Amino acid sequence: MAAWLVQMVYSEALRLYPPTWLFVPMATEDVRLTSVRLIPSGSRLFLCPYTSHRDERFSPQPDRFDPERFRPGP
Asked: Which of 14, 16, 34, 51 is the most buried (most CB within 10 A)?
């Protein structure tokens, strides 16, 4: 089996079932986002990959297991 195929399946499995439900990094410096919002240094950011990976804005048919999402190339 090709290594890229195994990587596609692995990546899709992690997209659907991330190893943790929440990441809480801290901003080490002030960051201005493109939305003109400022995230001050020392702020904690709460990121939930479980919900963001199921958002249809980022993944079509987000609840479907589809390793083809990660096929290399255009």
From this structure: 16
> Residue 26 — φ and ψ, nearest 5°?
-115, 135
Going by C-alpha positions, the residue among 72, 73, 55 that lies closest to residue 8 is 72
- Distance separating alpha carbons of residues 9 and 32, to the nearest angstrom: 35
Cβ contact 45:25 at 8 Å: yes
- Identify the H or E element spanning 12: helix 3-16
Contact yes or no for 15/69 (Cβ under 8 A): yes
**pLDDT-derived band at 25, boundaries 50, 70, 90:** very high
Quote the pTM value: 0.71
